[in-house]
Specification:
Helix content: 40-55%
Structural class: alpha/beta
Largest sheet: 5 strands, parallel
Number of domains: 4
Strand order of the largest sheet: 2-1-3-4-5
Radius of gyration: 32 Å
Oligomer: single chain
Number of strands: 16
CATH superfamily of the largest domain: P-loop containing nucleotide triphosphate hydrolases
CATH topology of the largest domain: Rossmann fold
CATH architecture of the largest domain: 3-Layer(aba) Sandwich
Shape: elongated
């Protein structure tokens, strides 16, 4: 049952309002002046405040202003026997839901009370939803791990740049964490409550990229059987992340440039422009200056998207971060898979630090997950690195692995056996899919299974 606080210095008005509201099954409490009302608001939660304007000690406008300043999230309905348009306008500006003159019309009062309660409940639900979304996104968003000077500089840049509207270009090798930098840029921005829409420009055929970005109208081209909303529209008031922007076709680059200049898009096959408010964060694993020299990327677009440049270093250039990264990844992998936590010995960490990590953080993540699943002891040792990673730092395959075979044919057969076994597991032992993936006929794959005695469950 909603509870309403009635604040008025006239006892007859309080009594009348109480009788009307209680008859409608509302809970009612009273306050004789503004000071008593603020004490009540500090002690209990109310669903609505009905507040008189003219009162001794502290009038209603002062109370309304204090409610706003103190952050009491409760709708306020102002009432007065001396109401003016100026008073009504001022109270609305201070956050009042509505203004009613005394004596109030019964029907209008009840309708306004119910509307104010519905509005207050909607505000509470929206606030809880926004908070849940923020908490969920923060919880799912991994931190940027590292104490190296390069990572500290990236974190500082995010802190300074994220609250602005500056466009950002993130560069770096595959697997370094460019997408994570982009997500933190969005999360720390004023657009965090709005969507972050991601587009992998390298994964979309050049003939479809414009439809993907800008949308299309029904019948715009063969196969366009219905209207499609593009990524720019989906990201309205939020952030658009253009991943692998260096792989975008020149025609699409020209249209993206026009959108960034004019803040409006036109769907493929459309006749009208649509305004969009989007912050663009782009990423690339290419040297865009080289692409510009080769005529593969527009220099004017580069300067549009690259107001702020962030280069994410490869993992081999910040080996001092590997211990922190390894233990952080191990903790997250264990929690996600319900595995017992495992630690890494100093020798194991040192061997990981010597590894070249051509796949960067993504490769480290895969290796740590493999170690947590396959290593038998609670502490992962250096021998486990040799056993499951199969390679040392810059030394190539370990000596033990090389010396395990004297005959080239045996070594080749063992590799082929484990390769096929791994691919079968990837495809849940679907022989047809596996054969297609590795590029051999299904009958040949069956021959290999018989040769090596491989069966489901191995």
């Amino acid at each position: 049952m909603p509870t309403i606080l009635v604040v008025d210095d006239e006892a007859s008005i309080r009594r009348t309002l109480r009788e009307i509201l209680e008859y409608e099954d509302f809970g009612v409490e009273e306050a004789v002046d503004g000071e008593e009302a603020l004490v009540a608001l500090g002690e209990d939660a109310y669903d609505l405040v009905i507040l008189d304007v003219k009162m001794p000690k502290m009038d209603g406008m002062e109370v309304l202003e204090t409610i706003a300043e103190e952050g009491y999230e409760v709708p306020v309905l102002m009432i007065s026997g001396h109401g003016t348009i100026e008073t009504a306008v001022e109270s609305t500006k201070l956050g009042a839901f509505d203004f009613i003159e005394k004596p109030p019309d019964l029907n209008r009062l009840l309708v306004t009370v119910r509307n104010a309660l519905d509005h207050g409940q909607l505000e509470v639900e929206n606030r809880r939803m926004r908070q849940a979304i923020t908490e969920q996104s923060t919880g799912d968003l991994p931190p940027i791990i590292g104490e190296s000077a390069e990572i500290q500089e990236i974190k500082d840049t995010i802190q300074r740049v994220a609250p602005t509207e500056a466009r950002v270009l993130v560069s770096g090798e595959n697997g370094t964490g460019k997408e994570l930098v982009a997500k933190w840029m969005h999360h720390k921005s004023g657009r965090a409550g709005e969507p972050m829409v991601e587009v992998n420009c390298a994964a979309i055929p050049s003939e479809l990229i414009e439809s993907e970005l800008f949308g299309h109208e029904k019948g715009a081209f063969t196969g366009a059987t219905e209207q499609r909303i593009g990524k720019f529209e989906q990201a309205h008031e939020g952030t658009l992340f253009l991943d692998e922007v260096g792989d975008m076709s020149l025609s699409a680059q020209a249209k993206v440039l026009r959108v960034l200049e004019e803040n409006e898009i036109e769907r493929v096959g459309g006749e009208h422009t649509i305004p969009v408010d989007v912050r663009v964060v782009a990423a690339t694993n290419k040297d865009l200056m080289e692409e510009i020299e080769a005529g593969q990327f527009r220099e004017d677009l580069y300067h549009r998207i690259g107001v702020i440049l962030i280069d994410v270093p490869p993992l081999r250039n910040r080996r001092e971060d590997i211990p922190l990264l390894t233990r952080h990844i191990a903790e997250r992998v264990a929690q996600r898979n319900g595995l017992p936590p495992k630690d890494f010995s100093e020798e194991a960490i040192q061997r990981l630090q010597r590894y070249d990590w051509r796949g960067n953080v993504r490769e480290l993540h895969n290796v740590v997950e493999r170690l947590l699943i396959l290593a038998e002891n609670p502490v992962i040792e250096g021998d486990d690195i040799d056993r499951f990673v199969r390679a040392g730092a810059d030394e190539g395959p370990t000596q033990d692995l090389i010396e395990a075979y004297d005959d080239f044919s045996d070594a080749r057969d063992q590799f082929e056996k484990h390769f096929i076994q791994h691919k079968l597991h990837e495809h849940d032992w679907n022989v047809s899919q596996t054969a297609e993936t590795i590029g051999i006929q299904r009958s040949h794959l069956y021959n290999k299974l018989n040769k090596y005695g491989l069966e489901r469950g191995d």
